[in-house]
Amino acid sequence: MLWAVATIVFVGIRLVPGDPALAILGGPGSQASAEALAAVRAEYGLDQPVLVQYGAFLGRLVTGDFGESYVLRRPVADVIGAQIGATLALAAASLVVAWAIAIGLALVSTGRSRWARSIGGGIETVAAALPQFWLASILVIVFATGLGWLPAVADGTPAGVVLPVLTLAIPVAGFLAQIMRESMLDALAAPFSLAARSRGESETGLRLRHALRHAAVPGVELSAWAFGYLVSGAVVVETMFAMPGLGRTLLQAVTLRDVPLVTAVVLVVALAYLVVTFLADVAATLIDPRRRDAETGDRPAPTPRAEVAA
Amino acid sequence: MSLRVQDLAVSFGGVEAVAGVSFDLAAGQCVALVGESGSGKSVTARALLGLAGADARVSAAALELDGAPLPAAGAPAWRRIRGARIGLVLQDALGALDPLRPVGREIGDGLRLHARASGSERAGRVHDALLRAGIENPVLRARQRSGELSGGLRQRALIAAAIALDPPYLVADEPTTALDAGIGRQVLAELGRLKAAGTGILLISHDLDAVAGLADHVLVLAGGRVVESGPTTQLLAAPEAPETRALLAANPAGRPRGTRLSIEDRPPRHGRATREPPIEPARGVGGPPVLELRDVGVVHRTPDGPFSALDGASLELRRGETLGVVGASGSGKTTLARVAIGLDAPTSGQVRRFGKPGGSGPGALRAARGRIGLVGQDAGGGFDPRWSVERTLADALAAEPGGRRRTRTARRRAVAALLDAVGLSGSLAGRAPASLSGGQRQRVAIARALAAGPELLVLDEPVSALDLTVQARVLDLLDDLQRERGLGYLLISHDLDVVAHASDRIAVVEAGRIVEQGDAARVLAAPEHPATRRLLGARRPLGGAARAQTDPVS
Amino acid sequence: MTALRLPTARETRRRADLLSRLPLVLAAVFAVLLAVAAVAPGILAPGSPTAIDPAQAFAPPSTEHVFGTDESGRDVYTRIVHGAGPSLLIGVAATAIGLGLGTLLGLLAGLGGRVADYAVGRTVEVLFALPGLLLALLVIVLVGPGPVPATIAVGLSSAPGYARLVRGQVIGIRATGYVEAARVLGHGRTRILARTIVPNTARQLLVLATLGIGQAIVWASTLSFLGLGTEPPAPEWGAMLNAGRTYLQVAWWMTVFPGLAIVGTILAATVLGRALERRAGGLR
């Protein structure tokens, strides 16, 4: 799987119009000499046949050697190692907050009065529609510039991470709440809910003991997707709030066309995504053992439909 | 002491779902509400537990439990009654037990809510309830989730959940419908034991025969009204309401081939409104076989290794003849049908259609184009949702040799003729399939299969999704069509009664093998294989004996 | 039971009419305004989106400049209206690329037999391991920044999602009773494909496309915001937000209003898409 990602990345790089050696030396504007280009080609093995390059590329990956950043002139592995912790922590914190908001929203709005349902549904839809970069700006305008409660940049204090986490968590909470509410509604309309009511179960008990459990399964499955969304969002949020992390590093690397660094970040994120998907699968199976028996091979994890383009 | 219902009416948004229901359910008695879907029986049952729904308006002259009126809709007092004083046994359609919770927890919920029993005490009482519902090994079962139990065990677990608190009254809503006949009989016997022990049971069913053995008093519902009520024996002996008679006549059990099951006035079919039912010689009967299977085997590759769906199946079918294939779900019936048509390829053996070797896949289907028709079980997915009835049938007509060259008027006329042949009004031509009733959809499916003038119809569970009286009408229609057109039928069903009624010959399938095959009368009278005997033995629900003396058509 | 449910549903619908129709009406009005702004922005905002008036720089919202002005005194309202065209164009083009490619792959996987299904399935799965924005960034680093690469990047990165959904649709439809019935009737592959499978899939694709355009606009504007797509002073919403970011502390209107335009567009697309979905009889 990771091998496939690596291959696609490699093929992608080879398909780039333009000379990688030129890119290393600063792009077409640098007017690099022919000797300099040749030297760079030799240094990075670009003068070898493509298959040899591919083999070397894979070989280095297996040993954890992602090469050296064109721009920073440091081993890529070091750069990533220094940054990844902050980003993972940010994503994890945001996921937890998103779950808390989503469960609250789903419990309050599901199957209650028509107004509660409409307002709850409206909040979810709007939350899910908020672009992260704009949400971040609005939060800064309101809570930092306007009210002055929280710092506008991540200054290293606990208060500094509140806005970044909220920025990431709110849209994800919208998606989570939507999908959880849908399954809660299904669960509340299912025959087993009628059976539970016929035993004297209260509406609140029904939600806590039955519906929430059913809503948790798609919620957990969606969390794997949400993790990818959060890491993507880290690019925006870390830039906006001037936080150290993989996202900001990636954006700089993209801007400077630092191919080895971008390649490595993409591979690392893909690896993390696979791990998270696996964990989500295990967690979902713990909640719903039927999944173990079902043919899970071809069944894709759910993605919010509005998010197909993401 | 009784559950007294006087003139109960339930309406939804001003539309009356059921009205005028009255009965008195005493301890140790059983009252049955019988009717088809939409008759209002389930709404009545739910109203007795205050669970008719938020939109429902329930009114009654009297609705009393042991002399005290039942609470108003939505009142918290209901929660003290549900489970503790009136229990509900729901139909197990794979969903009345929460699939994510252990069965024991589901059963223990009532104890937790009403008896405030401690954990260990609760476990003991859960096990006791499971035992009383006829489940062996209760400790294991309590730990399992519904997905790990068989249908019969699930239904018993639902009974256990309802009786955990020993409620004096039990409402059982179609407790046997989703079960094989044999297991359904055991479940009814379980309810019978509860009744003998003093529980008052309100039994809801669509099957008058099934309730006959248990119920002391029967109410027949149709269209939300009680059309007839009375003591069971009396009602069965002399049914008066046409709805009751139709229900009784519709049961195919014990009704020989050729007898009509539907007695009501259906839209008269063109030119044959006054046709007499006796058996006429069918056209084009006999002759060489239209379908032959020789030693056909189908092996599916699965992650757990090869799975033999069909093994050494041989059969023959001629025109004008019905071969009934019966077996439990998963026995290989449908695989047999698919191989016969050519939708699936046999792994071994040979399939011959119309005397020629037939393969499978598009080529084989094209070769037999127009000569074989398929009628499947209607699960709503049998028709392109975008197409009107007319377009569906026109598309099928195009499969007839030369069918595509029809002019528009000729096509329209052909569609009208097809609708007429299956007893549908031509005014349905413009309708979308979703707007048709189940019976109408199944008739359209038959019309589609007939469009290209086939000689052989494969009927895969053609009536299993239909109400009993609708089933009766469809079976009669198939019988008429066979006689008029000399069609050969390969009839696949899990329901031995349907197969016994409609077949000339019967093949019994078990675990992918045809274990017995022969003349219908012989197989039914003198079964040779244990599987056949099991099917036959399970066939009669408790009411069978009572019913045998009171055949309504005699 | 159906006989019972119908009146209930009708009753419910009547009562909920106003409440449930309101979003749809708002979305439709917004969509019409957007279309006008995209085709003929001059009707809604006669001024020039790039007209500079340094004397009026950073003017807060007033009757003269309803949404205020930016650092060069350009009218923010005029720029938003004139930005609708480029922003929508990027969104529509990206969706078209993604949907086109995704449909092609999905049909190939759904109809092409085992090998094609496996190959496409695995490729899509691999691409799915890369969150959308990351895939887009990868494309940008390979192709370079700019509005056209950004559009392609967003389109390409949305293709796997569409491919997966189309494949599911096709496989679902292929397994239905009516396709089986058509096969038994002896209809050929192409006839079944053209008459049954493709039309039924297309219905759902329309829904997907509507829902997808909103997201494509967000991702495209995100790239612009990060300085990798359209660049200021072109009146594109993401680019406007990128410019506004510098002046967040002094001129909130430069950020709030273009963002509202984006959010409004996604919401309108979502509401309209869901309405279409209900009419199409539900997406599986």
Automatic annotation (TrEMBL), chain B:
Map out region (Disordered) in residue numbers.
253-287
According to its UniProt entry, the protein's GO biological process terms are: transmembrane transport
> What InterPro entries does its record include?
AAA+_ATPase, ABC_transp_ATP-bind, ABC_transporter-like_ATP-bd, ABC_transporter-like_CS, P-loop_NTPase
Protein name in the entry = ATP-binding cassette domain-containing protein
Could you tell me the keywords of this UniProt record? ATP-binding, Nucleotide-binding, Transport
**Molecular functions (GO terms):** ATP binding; ATP hydrolysis activity
Protein family according to the UniProt entry: Belongs to the ABC transporter superfamily.
Does the UniProt entry include the keyword Transport? yes
Q: Does the keyword Nucleotide-binding apply?
A: yes
Q: Which residues form the ABC transporter domain?
A: 3-248, 291-536
Biased composition range(s): Basic and acidic residues: 262-278
Record lineage: Bacteria, Bacillati, Actinomycetota, Actinomycetes, Micrococcales
The record's listing under PROSITE patterns reads: ABC_TRANSPORTER_1, ABC_TRANSPORTER_2
UniProtKB/TrEMBL annotation, chain C:
- Name where it's found: Cell membrane
Instruction: Name the principal localization, coarsely classed.
Output: membrane
| UniProt superkingdom | Bacteria
List all membrane-crossing ranges.
21-44, 88-111, 123-142, 148-166, 205-230, 250-276
Protein keywords: Cell membrane, Membrane, Transmembrane, Transmembrane helix, Transport
- Say if the entry is tagged with keyword Transmembrane helix: yes
One GO term describing the cellular component: plasma membrane
Example of a GO biological process term:
transmembrane transport
Tell me what topology the record assigns in the membrane: Multi-pass membrane protein
The ABC transmembrane type-1 domain covers 84-273
> What family does the database annotate?
Belongs to the binding-protein-dependent transport system permease family.
Mind telling me what this protein is named?
A: ABC transporter permease subunit
Natural source organism: Agromyces seonyuensis
